[in-house]
Amino acid sequence: MLSPLAPAAHILAFAQTLDGGGVEKTLLRLAGAWTQQGRRVTLVVGDVAGPLGRDIPAGVDVRMVGTKTMIGMSAIAALTQEIDPDVLFCPGNHYTALAAWTRLRLGTHCPPIVAKVSNALVRRDHNAPVAAAYRTWLKWHPSFVDRLVAMSPAMADEASIMMGIARDRISVIPNPPPHATTHGALPGAVPAIPSGRFLLGVGRLAPQKRWDRLIDAFADIDHSDVSLMILGEGSERATIEARVAAHGLDRRVILPGHVADPTPTIARATALALVSDFEGVPGVLRESLAVGTPVVATDSSVAVREIVTSAAVGSVVQPGDAAGLVAALEHWLEPGRSRPNPVPQPGQNAAAAYLDLFDQAVLERRFERRLEQGLSRPA
């Protein structure tokens, strides 16, 4: 049942593709929860052909642009004008250029924009000129974003500094954890799990994830009985397969592709590794610790050490420290190594927290307009 009296009764969100990224997974999770809580949700997607297409929640109205390009996605401005939602939700900083374009095109007729910070704002992968341009771009965000969401306190502090947004305009809302599923309920959803000990990586096969680091480190560890599995799909598959072959690891590295529910595999892994150049608040680290699987992670965002809080649950290494990565993997592969106690995930009430924020943003906009109208009246 819809909630027509809620200030943010109609939410419009958008995504470029449904190819399997964490930002898009979380967006679908939230959209389903918002619909269940009585809100109308419209999702504008460039192309729904990706593996997450089957996860679009019932009740969500989908408008397809018909192209995966960011230029094509600029249609979001015209669609926002046509659909006329109460609030526009930008699910990650990859998409904020589209939010800026929409605000520029619609001006005062643009609905309030709530944007989520999904990745680190201090990027070690940028060279000096790119980093300078990126810092300038971040400083423009207060001109078109009404409210910002960070997934952890450290990410909120970083956003306030890098974007110049007042801290009281930033809300901390953790991502909602994945829904519990009955293992085996979805045919083919769980890959064949190695019979012995194995390391696990979960994430898109994309340059950001730097799976080459993990493969190189795996080639150097002294445990020939251990295998490596990486769950995910993406543009780097051929490059990764070539690197595996170059190390002669074809029989020990498994690349089953995208998996709808990685939780059963995470629970069986000896350790989980995330070796990215940059991340936001990596949900896979929380998912791993929630089932008692230790983690090895690069220091890819300020949030990593908020999750890996002690040496009892995992190891954090610098992105370029190849020897440190090997040592951390060796530590957790040592036979008889104790596994950490499960760590509960935050974010159980994330959907409701977003709705409260959306309502607040809409009410603030209404108040501003009434104030402007009052000031414009002749004395």
Q: Secondary-structure blueprint of this entry?
A:
Elements: E1 10-17, H1 22-36, E2 40-47, E3 61-64, H2 76-83, E4 87-90, H3 96-106, E5 113-116, H4 128-139, E6 147-150, H5 153-163, E7 170-172, E8 198-202, H6 211-220, E9 227-231, H7 237-246, E10 253-257, H8 263-268, E11 271-274, H9 283-290, E12 295-298, H10 304-307, E13 314-317, H11 322-333, H12 350-376
Largest sheet: 7 strands, parallel
List the secondary-structure elements in sequence, H or E: EHEEHEHEHEHEEHEHEHEHEHEHH
Gross geometry: elongated
The overall average pLDDT, rounded, is 92
Regarding quaternary structure, how should these chains be classified?
single chain
Radius of gyration: 22 Å
Task: Compute the separation of the termini in Å.
Answer: 45 Å
Q: How many E-type strands?
A: 13
By helix and strand content, what is the structural category?
A: alpha/beta
The strand line-up of the biggest sheet is 3-2-1-4-5-6-7
Number of helices: 12
In short:
This protein is of the alpha/beta class and 379 residues long. It has helices at residues 22-36, 76-83, 96-106, 128-139, 153-163, 211-220, 237-246, 263-268, 283-290, 304-307, 322-333, 350-376; strands spanning 10-17, 40-47, 61-64, 87-90, 113-116, 147-150, 170-172, 198-202, 227-231, 253-257, 271-274, 295-298, 314-317. The strands form two sheets. The protein has a seven-stranded parallel beta sheet, sandwiched between helices. Strands 10-9-8-11-12-13 form a six-stranded parallel beta sheet, sandwiched between helices.
